[in-house]
Design goal:
This protein has 609 residues and is an alpha+beta fold. 29% of the residues lie in helices and 32% in strands. A nine-stranded antiparallel sheet has the order 1-7-8-9-10-17-14-13-12, covered by helices on one side. A hairpin with a 4-residue loop joins β24 (527-530) and β25. α6 runs antiparallel to α7 (385-405), α7 (385-405) packs antiparallel against α8 (417-433) and α8 packs antiparallel against α9. It is globular, with a radius of gyration of 26 Å.
Length: 609
């Protein structure tokens, strides 16, 4: 299943490469190197990060004394990244595959060696890690900590290298699987064949020997982990990886395969299909667990991300059509808990949270309004009344805070008018779903804040133009805008949308996904659900030149939907909706009139564009 999403790159390999997990992220280049890169700490942002702590600048290999300098191809996938090296003179083919299992503060590196000679041979492998143990705050002198030089030592008993920052209790470890014995270890002044990256790191090198049969293959597994408060924790982490890495990777592959089967899109435009489906992958890359429980989405993926951050509601909303309503619910619970623990004023929520769970910015009226609107959007896709009741105390506090901040909604600033309007309507829906009073009054207040319709998009950015064309039913123009957005992604990473306002050094921007996902969901596939009332408003389109499209396994409430389009004439298409549960109502508008039809199993409609 996951092999369908592999992408091979053979050129422009200087572009960034990302391998991510819920507790760590590895950033380098698609040529397999780890150049000095980044903006948060200039030149220091590539390498392996575990939470807020950087572990190393990278790791480097030499095979039979030949450094693996530049890969011939990069293989990017949903779970792992692989680099292929053709060592023609040595008659070897090397594949270096790196994976970060869920919940692991480190990286698993599988080295695959293929012998092209007809005779067996012993292959020597040198594995060097260049540490650079730091935090962005300490590197910038922001938290009173001073970075020291890293010190490292090899431990014969555990067959591994250990390093720490000399001034802080931050530890790292690296080594190989239990079956691979170390022949020799040293602390070279420079990484052989590569030189040193900048910083105060130390080089720890381990030598191994691998027997490979004639025309045969062999492999070894290596590990790099860090961010630990003590040497003993580093030892435990390495031991756990040695024993269970295979199981960890298998579990992640199984989880991500299930993720990819949700809301799977098939369109004639392969680029758009890949972007839609890969969006699920990179949203998963942006997820992080918090030390005290819960999880959240990074605002973007530079090398030192903040959780939530600018556009958090927009970012999280993009998960809803992708089967992510339960995950959004968990993130909203985390946001409420973190805000309460920080003892923020009632109705105010964290705007930005560090990976350690510390609130770094407090939101204002806009963030509180967006929270209420996001709870509403989540309920439209989940229909989860229990979640509505759970969130009701917080949404009520948010609305009370908004009422005070806007003098009873009579003095709403223009820059938050849209957000306040959405919050009023959202709270009215939540009140109705929970059988609470006051919905009518809020709807009246929302009606008093009329929306200003955008009519001139000549100066609009491509994301805004896509949404406008979609609302107007200009599906071909919308597809043109989405194609521009897809082409602007990072080379080798379909769906790696960044948006026009991406921060310098940002590889992925979480909020950019919404600009792509929502026009596709609402204005191409035509899905606008209300799971609370088991109703689905359906207004699909089929662009000129397309024979059709399919969207499979869309989760709405407890039901799964398959939707497909088949063109039957230049201006007409047959749309089929299949549901896993009976009892849904489909609303279709034709010639200005709305029709309600019962969907028990499958419904077929012929509609014009």
């Amino acid at each position: 299943m996951l092999s369908e999403y592999r992408v091979y790159r053979y050129d422009h390999l200087e572009s960034p490469a990302v391998t991510a997990g819920s507790a760590a992220v590895l950033i380098g280049a698609q040529n397999g190197l780890f150049p000095d890169m980044g903006y948060a700490v200039p030149g220091e942002m590539g390498g392996l990060w575990a939470g807020e702590k950087k572990v190393c600048d990278g790791f480097f290999f030499a095979i039979d004394d030949v450094p693996l300098r530049t890969a011939d191809a990069c293989e990017a996938g949903p779970v792992s990244t692989a680099f292929h090296y053709r060592m023609q003179a040595e008659q070897l083919h090397i594949v270096r595959r790196q994976t970060i299992p869920d919940g692991v503060s480190g990286c698993v590196v599988d080295l695959h060696i293929e012998n092209l000679r007809p005779t067996p041979r012993m292959v020597e492998v040198s594995f060097t890690v260049r540490t650079d143990i730091l935090t962005v705050a300490a590197a910038g002198g922001e938290d009173g900590l001073e970075l020291g030089r890293d010190v490292g030592e090899y431990d014969e008993k555990t067959q591994a290298f250990y390093a720490r920052d000399s001034r802080n209790p931050w530890h790292a470890v690296w080594g190989a699987d239990a079956k691979s014995r170390v022949l020799q270890s040293d602390l070279p002044a420079e990484v052989y064949g590569f030189g040193n990256t900048q910083g105060k790191g130390v080089n720890g090198r381990l030598f191994y020997r691998v027997r490979v049969a004639g025309r045969g293959q062999a492999s070894m597994r290596l590990f790099v982990a860090g961010g630990f408060a003590s040497r003993s924790r580093a030892e435990d982490a390495l031991s756990d990886l040695r024993e269970h890495a295979g199981e960890m990777i298998a579990r992640k592959e199984e989880r991500v395969a299930a993720l990819m089967r949700r809301s799977e899109a098939f369109m004639p435009d392969g680029r758009l299909s890949r972007c839609f489906n890969w969006t699920k992958i990179y949203c998963d890359w942006l997820m992080r667990t918090l030390p005290r429980g819960g999880y959240a989405m990074c605002a973007d993926l530079p090398e030192h991300p903040a959780l939530f951050g600018q556009g958090f509601a927009q970012a999280l909303s993009s998960l809803l059509p992708l089967g992510g309503a339960p995950r959004v619910q968990g993130i909203l619970r985390t946001l409420v808990r973190v805000s309460e623990e920080a003892q923020l004023a009632p109705g105010r929520l964290a705007r930005s949270v560090s990976l350690s769970g510390r609130v770094t910015q407090v939101g204002g009226a806009k963030e509180s309004a967006l929270f209420v609107a996001l709870v509403h959007d989540t309920l439209l896709w989940s229909g989860d009344r229990a979640f509505a009741e759970e969130m009701l105390p917080t949404t009520c506090l948010c609305m009370t805070y908004l009422r005070r901040a806007t003098h009873g909604f009579e003095d709403v600033r223009q820059d938050i008018r849209q957000e306040v309007r959405l919050a009023l309507r959202a709270q009215a829906y939540i009140l109705r779903l929970t059988d609470s009073e006051g919905a009518e009054a809020l709807e009246a207040l929302a009606a008093a804040l009329p929306e200003t319709e955008q009519t001139d998009i000549s100066c609009a950015c491509v994301e805004e133009a896509a949404r406008w064309h979609g609302r107007m039913g200009h599906v071909e123009q919308m597809i043109g805008c989405l194609s521009q957005m897809a082409k602007a992604g990072l080379p080798g990473l379909p769906g790696a949308l960044r948006g026009r306002d991406a921060e310098p050094g940002s590889l992925l921007a979480s909020r950019a996904a919404a600009d792509f996902i929502w026009p596709m969901t609402e204005d191409l596939f035509g899905l606008r659900p209300d799971a609370g009332t088991r109703t689905l408003a359906f207004a699909p389109h089929t662009p000129i030149g397309w024979d059709g499209w399919r969207l499979e396994n869309v989760q709405i409430g407890s039901a799964r939907f398959d939707v497909r389009s088949e063109r039957i004439s230049p201006s007409m298409a047959r749309y089929t909706i299949a549901a896993s549960e009976p009892g849904w109502t489909v609303l279709v508008t034709e010639d200005g009139e709305q029709r309600a039809m019962t969907l028990e199993d499958e419904l077929s409609l012929v509609m014009g564009d």
